[in-house]
């Protein structure tokens, strides 16, 4: 039978090199043949024919007759297929045995997926920022932490109805910032729904709110006064976990300063 590209490609699909494929197809036309005749019919260099025949022997496609010179007999192709099948079954068994150990070692445990970043939304004007804060409080499930300026805590008294409902749902509320005569009444109202901690170094005009450790709202109040809806505030909301965790680090620093040596992780509800 002819040695053509189609037949060569077909047997090479099963792991034969080109020289092995040529030698095997040539041997199919012989009952038995020495290497020299196989090389001539297969058009394989004499210097490569023995290597090709040895490869075919390993694949169970050639039987060697140990004479001088050696002669070779082609074997059914299914011998090689059966060998590949047994090898695949052994590999499958080995994979099955290793599967549980590998699964235990390499189970995904990360909480931050940097390949799938969260959203970032700009919020402008105090009225819109106020609405966003109300929405965050309404949707909170575990914790609300606020780090703000003197006037940010004063303005936060506006949200006490929402904080009361959140407390009834079991949400833990913490507010951190300067405690002054100006915001004393507001902070007393906030304390009815959580805790208020003194931190004198909060920046003027700043307010950082983190909800459930999943969302953050960073606000710049313009101006930093007591008006609830009049102001050109600008805020950035995000649920990007890398960013939220970075902002939580700022909260933890303030908590450590406000509570002395209290563990930061205990201070910020998970």
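Sequence proposed for the structure above (270 residues):
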């Amino acid at each position: 039978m002819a040695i053509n590209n189609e037949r060569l490609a077909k047997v090479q699909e099963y792991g034969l090199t080109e020289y092995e494929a040529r030698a095997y197809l040539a041997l199919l036309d012989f009952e038995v043949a020495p290497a020299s005749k196989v090389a001539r019919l297969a058009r394989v260099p004499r210097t490569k024919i023995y290597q090709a025949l040895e490869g075919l022997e390993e694949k169970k496609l050639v039987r060697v007759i140990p004479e001088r010179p050696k002669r070779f007999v082609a074997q059914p192709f299914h011998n090689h297929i059966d060998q590949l099948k047994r090898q695949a079954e052994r590999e499958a068994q080995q994979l099955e045995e290793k599967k549980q150990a590998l699964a235990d070692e390499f189970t995904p445990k990360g909480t931050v997926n940097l390949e799938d970043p969260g959203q970032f939304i700009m919020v402008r004007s105090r009225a819109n920022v106020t609405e966003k804060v109300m929405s965050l409080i309404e949707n909170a499930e575990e914790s609300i932490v606020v780090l703000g300026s003197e006037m940010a805590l004063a303005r936060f008294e506006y949200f006490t109805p929402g904080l009361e409902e959140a407390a009834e749902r079991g949400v833990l509320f913490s507010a951190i910032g300067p405690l002054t005569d100006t915001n004393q009444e507001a902070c007393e109202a906030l304390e009815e729904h959580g805790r208020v901690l003194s931190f004198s170094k909060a920046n003027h005009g700043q307010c950082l709110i983190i909800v459930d450790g999943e969302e953050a709202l960073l606000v710049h109040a313009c101006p930093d006064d007591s008006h609830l809806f009049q102001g050109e505030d600008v805020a950035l909301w995000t649920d990007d976990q890398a960013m939220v965790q970075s902002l939580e680090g700022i909260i933890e620093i303030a908590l450590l300063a406000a509570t002395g040596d209290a563990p930061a992780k205990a201070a910020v509800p998970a």
